[in-house]
Amino acid sequence: VNLSLRTRLTASILGITLFCLLLGFTVIALRQIDAIREQRLQAMSVIAEVVGDSATAALAFGDAADATDVLSPLSEFPDIEAAALYGEGGQLFATYRRAGLRAAPPWPAELPADAPTLREVRDTTTVVRIPVVYQGYAYGTIELVASNAALAAEIRAFVLTLAAIVLALVVLSVIAGWTLQRRITRPIFELAAVAGQVSSSQDASLRARTGYPGELGTLADGFNAMLGRLEARERELVSSRDTLRALIDASPVAIIGIDGAGTVTLWNARAAAILGAAEGDAIGRPVD
Amino acid sequence: MGVRAALLALAAAGSGLGPAWPGTAHADRTEPEIKAEFVERFTRFIDWAEKDLPDHELVVCVHGDSPITRHLERIANRRTLRGRRAVVEAVSDPDRLVDCQVVVIAGSDRRRLRAALARTEGRPILTIAETPGAAAAGAIVNFYRDDKHVRFEINPGAARDSRLKVRAKLLRLARVVRSERGGAR
Description:
- By secondary structure, chain A is α+β, with helices and mostly antiparallel strands.
- Chain A has helices at 2-54, 56-60, 64-71, 149-201, 214-250, 269-275, 279-282; strands at 80-86, 92-97, 118-121, 125-134, 137-147, 256-258, 264-267.
- The radius of gyration of chain A is 47 Å and the shape is rod-shaped.
- Chain A starts with a helix and ends in a 6-residue tail after the last helix.
- In chain B, the strands form two sheets. Chain B has a seven-stranded mixed sheet with strand order 3-2-4-5-6-7-9, with helices on both faces. A two-stranded antiparallel sheet of chain B has the order 1-8.
- Chain B is globular.
- Chain B starts with a helix and ends in a 9-residue tail after the last strand.
- Chains A and B meet through helix 2, helix 3, strand 2 and strand 5 of A and helix 1, helix 2 and helix 6 of B.
């Protein structure tokens, strides 16, 4: 029973703590992963805008060689694997492929007129496709494809850090939970031990420790008061029994007590003198 | 876009180079058509001081008989230039060129070129020629052919004298030329 109280308390404290931690962990992780992806998309959109802006004249004057030149600084961004510039009519105009990349994406020769603007984190790549607009004139479309390797590594590192923090918090809460339940259960156990002693030794002079705060203090004080009253009543009982016995023994009349079964239960000194049997011999014998 | 254009675009996709043109493929278009298209594009990448432009229209004059005029008129019907109604005029009298904002000096008549440049020099007029050496002679833009492509040279000094600003994006694409002393001046 003692163990179960401890276990139950510890389990409740831990359960609540774990639930809150995991809930917090999940919410933070989801939000942060979202933020990391959004950041990546924004960075890529900015790159697409800047590169697209530099390509406007090349697109305007159909200078594919210059457009290819404009795309080449993309090698500064190792995540970006490939890029394509489409002209105003949607035809593929210039492309970029990171050195060492085995296969370029299968760019369509012509981008459909209704091809939507893209801003997507896919399984292995992030794709941004935006129109190239300069001074209010549309010159075409730029599309960037970036590998998700760095993004995934960033998310992984974040999740691992968060998991480590949660683990440390769990360990801390186990320790805190154990300490907390001990503070609550120790006085109860002490009280229970005193109660056990009283009932096994019949000793009403024992007392529980006092000075606990709150309900536990009330309980211990009440317990002690009860023991005190019990002790006083016992003392009274003993003294009145002794008085009665002295009166009976001093009586000049023989007094014999017999219970319902005819057995002698009381045998005073005068009875012993008259009947010639000692009290010790008479008690418990049938009367005859 | 025709099959040929699609093939060209495919070729461009393969090499990352080659003639791929906005709108339709370059190979489908004639040289005057491309030049007319370029003239319109120049007005996007070369800036006038706002006070040097009329409020509601922008006059593009073609000096000399050229099919460019027809193509420019077609463009002017579809688009505005610098937010203004485009007016295309064929102008044969060089004295009338001062009322234009863009002057295309067609053909390769050097004498006519010099006469036109003498009228427009120092005024906020974008002069576009198609004569070898015209930029060095004071034209702001001059077309030339490079293999199969229509290309252009730009004289930033002449642009500055005309209070025109050529954007760096455009200069990247151009062969930059300085005025030769004693050219058209």
